[in-house]
Amino acid sequence: MTTSREIHLAARPHGWPTAETFRLVTVDVPDPGPGQVVIHNQFMSVDPYMRGRMNDGPSYAPPYEVGKVMHGRAVGEVVESDDPALPVGRMVLHEAGWREYAVIDGRHATPVDPAAVPTVSAYLGALGMPGLTAYVGLLDMAAFQPGDTVFVSGAAGAVGSVVGQIAKARGAARVIGSAGSATKVAHLHQLGFDAAFDYHDGPVMAQLAQAAPDGISVYFDNVGTDHLEAAINSLRPFGRVALCGAISVYNATEAPAAPRNLGMAVGKRLTLRGFIVSDHADRRDAFLTEMGEWIRTGQVQVNETIVDGLEKAPDAFLGMLRGENLGKMVVRI
Ligand code: NAP
Fold this sequence. Notes:
Helix content is about 25%, strand content about 25%. It is an alpha/beta fold. It folds into two domains: about 5-125 and about 305-330, Alpha-Beta Complex (Quinone Oxidoreductase, Chain A, domain 1), CATH 3.90.180; about 130-280, NAD(P)-binding Rossmann-like Domain (Rossmann fold, 3-Layer(aba) Sandwich). α2 packs across α3, α2 (about 130-140) crosses α8 and α5 (about 205-210) packs parallel to α6. The protein is globular and about 60 Å long. NADP nicotinamide-adenine-dinucleotide phosphate binds near residues 47, 130, 222, 248 and 323.
C-alpha cells in the first residue's frame, strides 16, 4: 500500500459536532522507521471521551489538533515490521485509530489473541477500555458488595451493559438500568437486568423510585444531570456512586440545572467518587482473567453495533452520541 485514508478534525465544534467537524483525507503511508510497524486497521472505536478532545481547553488529556488526524483505539494486523516482537500477521491493539493504515513504534502496540474472543472488536468493548471502566468503576470506585441494589444509567451502552452484567455475575440483589428506547429496555431484560426503563417515558426520579421501591445502594453514573439527581434521591444511607461520565452535558452550551439535591449527600452520608480508567492499569490483568471467564461462560454478553467503512466513522461517532448504538459502537474499516 502507498496511500491511506484518515479522518482529520476540520474545525472545533460548538455544541453538537456536524459533518463539517470532520474531513476525510488521503495521505501517503511512510516507510516504517527503526522499531516501527505498519498496521492495517480492521476495527476502530468511537467513544464519548472523543467529544471532549475536540474542545480546546484544560482536560486530563490533550485536545485533538485542528487539521490533524484524530486518534483513538483500534485493532489491526501488522503488515510491515521493524520490531522483532511484532512479526507480520500479528493482531495488535493501539491508539492510532481514525485511519486505514497506522505507522507507529512497536512499543505502543499491544498484541491481542483473536482466538480468545468471538470477534477481535471485543478488545475495543467488553474486553477493552469500556469493560475495564465498568469493572473498576463498579467493584473499586463504588465498592460493590453482593446483595447491593445497583442502578446504572446509559445501561444499554458499552460501559453500562457490562456494569449491569458484572453486578448480576457478582451477586447483586437487584439491578436497574435506564436507556433511551423501548428496544434498549427489552435488551436490558434479555441481559438479565431485574428492571429497566426508558428515560423518555417520564421523569427519571419517578421511574427510578418505582423500579427501586426500597431504594438503591449503588449508582453507576454515565449520564449526570437528571439521572444523578434521581439517584441521590433514591440512594439509601451510606450509598456509593461511581461518577463515570455525564454524557447528557457533553454537547451542552449552558451549565446544567441538575442535580439540585446534592445537599442530601450529607445527611445520607453518601460517597460520590469520580474516576478515569487510565489511572487503573494495575487492574487490567485481574479484569482480563475474570471478564474472559464471564464471556466464555456467557455471564457477560458481548454486544456491539458495527458501522462499515472509515468514511462512515464520523456518522458512527455522532450516532453513538445520539444513542443509535446497542452495546459498543465500532467501525469496521
Ligand atoms: P455508550 O453508552 O456506548 O454510548 C453513549 C450512550 O449515551 C448512547 O448510546 C445514548 O444511549 C446515551 N446518551 C446520549 N445522550 C444522552 C442523554 N442526554 N441522556 C441519557 N443518555 C444519553 O458509551 P460508553 O463508551 O459506554 O460511555 C458511557 C459513559 O461512560 C460516558 O459518559 C463516557 O464518557 C463514560 N466513560 C468514562 C470513562 C472513565 O474513565 N471515567 C471511560 C469510558 C467511558 P441512550 O439511547 O440510552 O440515550
